[in-house]
Amino acid sequence: MFNKETYTQRRETLRKNVKEGIILILGNVDVPMNYRSNTYRFRQDSNFLYYFGLDQQGLAGVLDADSGEEILFGDDLTLDDIIWMGPQPSIQERAARAGISRTMPFGKLAEFLGKAVSDGRRIHFPPPYRAENKLLLEQLLGIKPADQPSQASADLIKAIVAQRSVKEAQEILEIEKAMDVAWLMHTTAMKMAKPGVFEHEIAGVVEGIAISADGMLSFPLILSINGETLHNHAHNNKLEEGRLLLMDGGAETAMHYATDHTRTMPVGGRFSQKQKEIYEIVLNAQLKAIQNIKPGVPFRNIHMLAAETIADGLKAAGLMKGDVKEAVEKGAHALFMPHGLGHMMGLDVHDMEDLGEDYVGYDDEVKRSDIFGTAFLRLGRKLQSGFVLTVEPGIYFIPALIEKWEQEGKFREYINYDAIKPYLGFGGIRIEDDILVTDDGYRVLGRPIPKTVADVERMMNEGV
Question: Which CATH class is domain 169-455?
Answer without folding.
Answer: alpha beta
